[in-house]
Amino acid sequence: PHSAPHSVTPAFTTLSQFNVAALHSETTQIFLSLRFGEALAAGEALKSKLAAKGFNVFLCAVECGENIMAQVAHNLDVCKLVVVMGTSTYGQKTSAPFSTHEELQFIANEQKPIFLVKMCDRFVDSLARFNLGDHLAFYPWRPRTEQEQANVPDELVSAIVRKYQSL
After folding, report:
1. DSSP letters along 147-159, please?
2. What would the pLDDT profile of 18-55 be if each residue is shown by its tens digit?
3. I need a surface site. Which of 6, 51, 130, 160 has the fewest CB within 10 A?
């Protein structure tokens, strides 16, 4: 008689056990999607706080000459959770060949789990409003300066960790 295959996914009883296991992962676990001109400082600060919790976080920092689209597509594909830093122009089509507009289309097409950090009252882009609408739970955070962006609320980090653990 063959036994049914079973999952070897560990059950985490404490956050510290979860952190230790996450530290040993080579794969991007959390993908930060944002507009550089509006939320880069917030994204870098959030990445740092999540990394301190043991997560492998991707925030696009492609070197000159590297293929940004390939890097973004690969890391979106393998991540378990996308954190959208939802500023007002997030998802808007730009003159660049690749932007959050294309990222959001890929995220929606692939049905990636999203955690929305709502950083505005309303998205300019209708597709962003459609994909990031009222059906999504969100955490409101509206820092107005780079200094405020550098101070990521602990509650936000905890909410992202809880969402990740629930997947």
Report:
1. HHHHS--HHHHHH
2. 443 444 446 899 999 999 989 999 999 999 999 999 99
3. 6
* Residue that wins the pLDDT comparison between 142 and 21: 142
- 32, 56, 162 from 12: Cα distances, Å: 24, 17, 12
Residues 6+ apart with CB under 8 A from 87: 34, 35, 38, 39, 119, 120
Residues 131 and 113: their CA atoms lie apart, in Å, by 12
Is residue 65 within 8 Å of 90, Cβ to Cβ?
no
Cα separation, 165 vs 15, whole angstroms: 10
Q: Between 89 and 67, whose confidence is greater?
A: 89
* Amino acid letter for position 70: A
Tokens at 69, concatenated = 């689209």
